[in-house]
Design brief:
Blueprint lengths: L8 E2 L3 E4 L6 H9 L2 H4 L10 H13 L8 E6 L4 E12 L4 E8 L8 H17 L3 E6 L4 H9 L3 E12 L2 E11 H23 L6 E4 L2 E4 L1 E2 L1 H7 L8 E6 L4 E6 L2 H11 L6 H10 L2 H10 L2 H4 L7 H11 L16 H16 L4 H14 L5 H11 L1
Helix pairs in contact: 1-3, 8-9, 13-14, 13-15, 14-15
Length: 384
């Protein structure tokens, strides 16, 4: 490993940096004097700002040490520290880093801790060369466990009476992620990140519907992006979600992917974003195979998806995916998509199996993109 100390890390909403002597006040006001924060921690709530300044100064004195990792979590909105994340223990021989964190209660349930933790995981694996990153929480502090799962850590089990905090001697729920697991997940997330950048910077691939001059943003999976990224216009199948606080549109290159999405969100505990991540990790055909074969271990490789949820998806969707179309189907070009649908409807009416007919028509369209509907039907009849 190559230790680099508390390097500055920037994310969308945060700056993770070393503490400075001026951070004592913010530390005291934002989290160290908050009893809600310290309930599950080992140190007592600070009653006086001098206590916080003393701790911060200790961190400052060690900030130049390349083996010391103690970040201030600075919110860009308030431009001051709102919490901290650090390496609280380390096994040099095994390359293990144990992470601890806390933020002020005013910033709970906003995804801030997971955003900071994810950035630290990336830094320790990519820059330092860690082999294993782990953390643990009091079973009563269930939201801390949610952070760990969201960051891709796997629940390993509960150690009985193995820790202590301000509640006394407690059990410890242990989570970890290995570098090999992180690398596998990163390949998917890097593709998603690159796709997002391309969507932002390339007007030819815009994930929104233009309806009479009004743009409607579409949430799409990596599978759909791959199908439309080189086209100027695309035909997408839309799923519309109405919530109390938002109206959301999800776009899919194929009906199969949209149907899989609808099946996934029908499972309790699986929302639109989770379903989209699943469909970004596995193609529709792969996902159908995973669910049909009951491979929960493979399904839980999706970032943020635990084994229990994966098992629940398989149990609830087992036997419900029969009759879905060819998982490789895509309609990248609006004109060809319309022609394909019309030709497919004609062949199905003539008694041909939909899956076989669709596969044949797509092969024909790849070789003859300018074929008319009549030509497609004629050539389809010859090939079926």
């Amino acid at each position: 490993m190559i230790h680099k100390g508390t390097q500055t890390i920037e994310t969308k909403r945060l700056i993770l940096r070393a503490f400075t002597p001026d951070d004592g006040r913010a530390a005291f006001e934002n989290w160290m004097s908050d009893p809600k924060v310290t309930e599950f921690l080992r140190w007592k709530t600070h009653a006086d700002i001098s206590d916080s300044r003393k701790i911060v100064n200790e961190w400052v004195s060690r900030s130049a040490d390349p083996e010391f990792y103690q970040w201030a979590i600075v919110s860009k909105d308030v431009n001051e520290p709102i919490g901290t994340i650090s390496v609280v223990d380390r096994n040099e021989a095994l390359g293990i880093f144990h992470i601890g964190y806390c933020i002020g209660s005013k910033w709970w349930h906003k995804g801030i801790t997971s955003e900071a933790f994810s950035a630290v995981i990336h830094f320790l694996f990519e820059e330092v060369g860690a082999n294993r990153i782990e953390s643990q929480h009091d079973p009563e502090n269930i939201h801390s466990g949610d952070v760990m799962k969201k960051c891709g850590l796997t629940f390993e089990g509960t150690l009985r009476q193995a820790d202590f905090n301000n509640r006394g001697i407690v059990d410890a729920c242990v989570y970890s992620i290995l570098q090999s697991e992180w690398q596998n997940n990163t390949s998917v997330w890097q593709r998603l990140y690159n796709a997002a950048l391309k969507v932002q910077n390339d007007r030819a691939v815009s994930p929104f519907i233009d309806a009479g001059g009004v743009g409607y943003y579409l949430h799409i999976s990596l599978e759909t992006f791959s199908a439309i990224e080189h086209t100027e216009t695309a035909r997408l199948y839309v799923h519309y979600v109405v919530r109390e606080d938002a109206q959301l549109l999800y776009g899919f290159a194929t009906k199969t992917e949209r149907e899989l999405f609808r099946h996934l969100i029908s499972v309790s505990g699986v929302g639109g974003n989770t379903a989209r991540m699943i469909l970004s990790t596995y193609s529709p055909r792969e996902l159908q195979g995973i669910i049909t074969s009951g491979n929960a271990v493979l399904l839980k490789n999706v970032k943020g998806l635990g084994l229990k949820t994966a098992q629940k998806i398989i149990v609830e969707l087992s036997g419900k995916l029969t009759g879905l179309g060819d998982a490789d189907a895509a309609l990248p070009a609006a004109g060809n998509g319309e022609k394909l649908e019309e030709a497919l409807a004609a062949l199905v009416m003539l008694g041909f199996a939909k899956t076989a007919a669709e596969k044949a028509l797509r092969g024909i369209l790849r070789e003859n993109p300018g074929a008319s509907v009549e030509d497609l039907v004629r050539m389809g009849l010859k090939s079926l």
